[in-house]
Amino acid sequence: MPLTKRKEAILQIIVDEYIATAIPIASKAVAHNFNLKVSSATIRNDIADLAEEEYVKRSHLSAGAIPTDKAYRYYVESLNLRNKLSWQEQNEFRRLLEKTTGEIEQWIQLVATFLAHIVHNAVLVTSPKALQYRFKHIDLVALQDFVALLIMVLNEAKVGKKILSFTEKITQDELVTISNKINSIYAGMTGKEIAEKEVGLTPNEQQITSYIIDMIENEDRNESNKPYLEGLHLMLSQPEFTASEQIVNLLELLEENKWWKNILTNEIISGGIKVIIGKENEDEALQDLSLIISEYGIAGKAKGVIGVIGPKRINYGKVINSIDFLSSLLSRSMAEYI
C-alpha cells in the first residue's frame, strides 16, 4: 500500500536525518524541528505505523527510528533525492580529466580517488573492456642489444607491454622501421584478422606479430577488468564499522581476487544506474552495505563500470548524482581513445 503524503514526508525526514547523523531519530525531534503542521501525537502514531509496515525499526516503543532496507528502497525510488553535485565539483571533475595525460588507467585512478573524497566512501572503477579489441599501434623501445620493450595500444583504450628477446642484435632505428611497417599493415584489425592477414614479414616482424596476436586474444578472453578500489579507509571510518567482526568479514571478502565478479555481472550493471541495498547483495559480508553502480563507455565498442560502496545510510542523492554525471563525463572522454 502506498504511503500517505504525510508519512512520506516523515519517512524522508527520518532517512535524511539518519544519513546525516547515524543516530536514531526520535518522534519528538521530527515534531519540533520540522514544520509538518500536525501534533506530536500524530507524528508518533505515523512513526508507529511506519514501524509496523517495516519502513523503520526501533529497539523499543519509545526509542528513535532507524530506516530499514525497505525504507531506503522507497527513498531511492519514490522520494526526492537531494545533494546534487555543485558546479564547483563538476568543474573539478572536468579539469581532472582535461589535465590528465597518459594511459587511461591513470585517469581512472585519479577519478576514483577524487570521487571517493567527495562521497566519503569506497569507489570502484574498471578500465573499459572492449567487446572485441582492435589494434591501434605499437612502439618498440631498445633496452639492450638483444632486448626491446613492446608497447601496444588498442583502439579501445587498452595498453599492453611486453619484453621481447631477439636472437640477434637489433638497433632502435630497426625497431622504428618494424613498428612503422606493422602499424601501417594492421591498424584497426582484430587479433583474428591479423592472424589471417597474408603479408611478407621478416623473422623479427613475424615474432612481434605473434606477440601482438597473443596479447589481443588474451584481452578478448578476459570477462572483465579488475576494478581499481579507492577510499576503503573512508568507508571504514563510518560509525557503522566500529564492530571489529564486521570489518574483518568485509576485509576478508575484499581480499579475494574475485569478490567483484558477483557485483559486476551484466544483469546488475546493464541499463543505467543500479542501487543495491543491504540484503539485496548476494554476499553476506556486503549485506550491511549499499552499492550504487553504473556503466560508462561507447555503445557497441567498449564499456567500464563506476560504482560506490558504503553503509546503507549512504548519501544516495549525492552518490547517484555524482555517478550519473561522472559516467557521462567518462563516456565522452573515452571518445578520444576509441
The H-level CATH homologous superfamily of the largest domain, spelled out, is GAF domain
Question: C-alpha Rg, in Å?
Answer: 26 Å
Name the CATH class of the largest domain: Alpha Beta
What is the number of strand segments?
11
Secondary-structure content class: alpha+beta
Q: Characterize the main sheet.
A: 6 strands, antiparallel
Number of helices: 13
CATH architecture verdict of the largest domain: 2-Layer Sandwich
Instruction: Tell me the domain tally.
Output: 3
Low-confidence stretches: none
N-C termini distance: 49 Å
> What amount of the residues lies in strands?
15-25%
Task: List the quaternary state of the chains.
Answer: single chain
Shape: elongated
pLDDT average, as an integer? 85
**Helix fraction?**
40-55%
Would you give an account of this structure?
The chain starts with a helix and ends with a helix. The chain folds into three domains: 5-78, Winged helix-like DNA-binding domain superfamily/Winged helix DNA-binding domain (Arc Repressor Mutant, subunit A); 87-128 and 225-334, Beta-Lactamase (2-Layer Sandwich), CATH 3.30.450.40; 135-221, 2-Layer Sandwich (Enolase-like, domain 1), CATH 3.30.390. It has helices at residues 5-21, 27-33, 40-52, 69-78, 87-99, 104-119, 172-186, 191-196, 203-221, 232-236, 244-255, 266-269, 316-334, and strands spanning 56-57, 66-67, 122-125, 129-130, 135-144, 147-154, 158-165, 228-230, 274-277, 289-298, 302-311. It is of the alpha+beta class and 338 residues long. Strands 3, 4, 8, 9, 10 and 11 form a six-stranded antiparallel sheet that branches. A three-stranded antiparallel sheet has the order 5-6-7, covered by helices on one side. Strands 1-2 form a two-stranded antiparallel ribbon. The mean pLDDT is 85. The protein contains 13 helices and eleven strands. Helix 1 (5-21) packs across helix 3 and helix 5 (87-99) packs parallel to helix 13 (316-334).
